[in-house]
Amino acid sequence: MNEAKEALRNIEQNYKLFQQQQFTFIGALQHTRENAHDTIRPVASINQVQSYTDHHCNNTTDRRILTMFLNICNDLSKLCHKLETMHSGNSVTNGILERCKLLLSHSNDLSTIRAKYPHDVVNHLSCHEARNHYGGVVSLIPIILDCMKEWVAHMEKLPQRTLYNVSAGSAISEKRAPQEAPARAATSQTPHSEHLENQISTSNKDNVQVQGSERVWKKNLNDAEKHSGKHKGPWKPPGRHA
C-alpha cells in the first residue's frame, strides 16, 4: 500500500506541473488540430492526442506538453494494472479500478466527462472550448486521480489480510498446543513408566525365586529327616501307652 501511495504522489506532482501549463496544452492541441485539418470534432480520446503528437506536431514546445500529458496517462494506466494484480480488494475497490481502466483506454470517448469542484480546469476554458472541444481531455487526469485516491481510502479501511493470516496461524498453534500437551506428557512419562514396570517385574521375579528356594529347602529338609529315621510321631507322655 505504501508503494501505491508513493507512486500516486509522484504522478500528482507531475500533474501539478502539467496543470500550470494548461494554456500551453490547449495551444498545442489547437495547433496540431489545425495541421491535421481536424478542427470540427472535439478532442475525445487519448489515441487522438497521440496521433496529433506523432503526425501533426511541428514545434518542440507543443511536442513536449503533449508528450507530458500522454506520459501521465500512461503512468496512471500502469498503476491501475499493478494495483489490480497486487491487491485483491472488494467490489467497491475493483469497480473503481475498472472505471479508471475504462477512462484510460486509448479509444475511450472522453468528450462527455467533466471534472467538477474543487477542480477548475474546465473553468479555465472559454465556454466554446469547454463545451465543444477540450472539456473532456482536460478533465481526464483529475478525475482519474480522484478515483485513485478513493481506491486508496477504501483499501485502507479493509482488514489487513497478511496480519489476519498471521494471527490465524498463531491461533491455530495455540489450539494445537493443549491438544498435543497430553501426548507430549504421555511421551515424556513413557520411559519412567517403563522403568517402574521393569523394577516391578524384577521384584516379582526375585520374590518368585526366593519363594521357590524356600520350598526347595523345606522339601530337602523333610527328605533328609525321612532318610535318617529322625522323623518321629507325636510326643506322648511317659507311662502307659495304648
UniProtKB/TrEMBL annotation:
In this chain, the stretch annotated as Disordered covers: 174-242
User: Which superkingdom does the taxonomy of this entry point to?
Assistant: Eukaryota
Q: Which organism is it from?
A: Thinocorus orbignyianus
- Where are the compositionally biased (Basic and acidic residues) regions? 215-227
Q: Where is the composition biased (Polar residues)?
A: 198-212
Instruction: State what protein this is by name.
Output: SACA9 protein
A single GO CC term for this protein reads:
sperm flagellum
What segments bear the compositional bias annotation Basic residues? 228-242
Q: Which Pfam family, any one of them, does this sequence belong to?
A: SPACA9
The record's listing under InterPro entries reads: SPACA9
